[in-house]
From TrEMBL:
A family per Pfam: PAP2
Catalytic activity: a di-trans,poly-cis-dolichyl diphosphate + H2O = a di-trans,poly-cis-dolichyl phosphate + phosphate + H(+)
GO terms of molecular function: dolichyldiphosphatase activity
Topological relation to the membrane, as annotated: Multi-pass membrane protein
Domain Phosphatidic acid phosphatase type 2/haloperoxidase, residue spans: 53-172
Protein name: Dolichyldiphosphatase
Organism: Melanomma pulvis-pyrius CBS 109.77
Amino acid sequence: MEEYAPLASLSLTHVHYNPADRLSYLCAWLALVPQALCVIYVTLIWSNREVEIMLMFAGQMACEALNWVMKRYIREERPPEMHGQGYGMPSSHAQFVTFFSLSLTLFLLFRHVPHPTETRTPFTLFQRFMISILAIGCAAAVATSRIYLNYHTPKQVLVGCAAGAIFAFAWFGFTTYLRRSGWVEWGLETFLARLFRVRDLVIQEDLVDSGWARWEERRLRMQSFSVQSGDGRKNK
């Protein structure tokens, strides 16, 4: 019988949890939030080509790179109950979701100034504030789940949250500088940006409203054409 090398587990999506504990099962799903957010990032970038989303994703990846460096510099082990591999300080999950939730909050409260259109009334400042609170609450749930599943100690999670928060504020300041100094506008005029149709509309427009006005206009025009065609047949 032919022998094979022992199989390895892809730790990116492999999560240990207690099958007899429903909360542990929920925490296992929460552990997949960073992967889901990456899919959302890529989907939005591909479908909307918004430079603001690209900048936020670039910051997210830079934050992950910082976490990789910090773990290998600090070299603190995970809790003894954890059987996984890799260092635990700081928690990459906590750092990831903290950066995301605070970056989203800073964007919604300080950079996003949506204008009303004929087809949609944008969220008010209070509504955007409530969305920010929801995002931060979800991030807290993900970070807490890492402690519950014994993947990290409370200190490792807190340091991860602190690193993600500091980097979020720093990245927001950096992107604000890029906008005010004209670098973003310059980048949008480059050949590659024009080739891939990169735009900067989400600052003043809702992603939900993207293309909706054009669709409504087309739909009404088609309905009007259908009615006129029907009246023409009746007159004959």
